[in-house]
Amino acid sequence: MIVLPRTYICVEEEYMPSRGVYVENGKVYAAVIGRLIIDTVNRKVSVIPFKKENVPRYGDIVIGQVVSMKDEIAFIRIEAFEVSKPLKHSFTGILHISQVANEKRLPTLYDAIRTGDIIKARVINNQIPLLLSVKEPRLGVILATCSKCGALLTKRRSASQLICPNCKNSEQRKLSMDYLLIESREYNKG
């Protein structure tokens, strides 16, 4: 049987999820386009993709855009392994507040990222949706826009402070060491 992504297959109690599937609220769904394989002996279900895809795996560094968020969780559209290595299809990633800072717990995820930010993150699981972490110094926001006027933000001397060159709005993020914008000399004087 051929299945498409998000096709309902069974409940988790019937068959153990394997490759090419994911679990949501106890229900097993197809994660890729492919052939459904039900192993009745081992009680496993999987979907074998028609085309070999580059699917991010545990330990991979990925680039994605924050598409929506709440106080403790953000949903990321993963687009590439690196800026120069885009994926054929985007994947969904989840960033939990506990995966942002090593030393202290943030009061809200809005202190580290915002909707629209481009982030660099590490994948910390092997199933969809992908769980992400930005705890390492090289991980975090690599491009951000002003939440007031939409201009690209420039980095200040502070490790997490950004400023808008248009409206002078100051914002804080969990910045990657690889933040893409060049520091503005005009704002670094003070």
SS elements, strand count? 16
Return residue spans where pLDDT drops below 50 for at least 5 consecutive residues. Answer: 181-190
Calculate the terminal CA-CA distance, rounded to whole Å: 65 Å
Instruction: Briefly note the structural class of the backbone.
Output: mainly beta
Q: Taking Cα atoms only, what radius of gyration do you get, to the nearest Å?
A: 19 Å
How much helical structure, as a percent, in the residues? under 10%
Per DSSP, what share of the residues sits in E-state strands of 2 or more residues? 35-45%
- CATH architecture label name of the domain at 61-143: Beta Barrel
Q: What is the overall shape?
A: elongated
- Strand line-up of the largest beta sheet: 8-9-10-12-11
Main sheet makeup: 5 strands, mixed, barrel
CATH class of the domain at 61-143: Mainly Beta
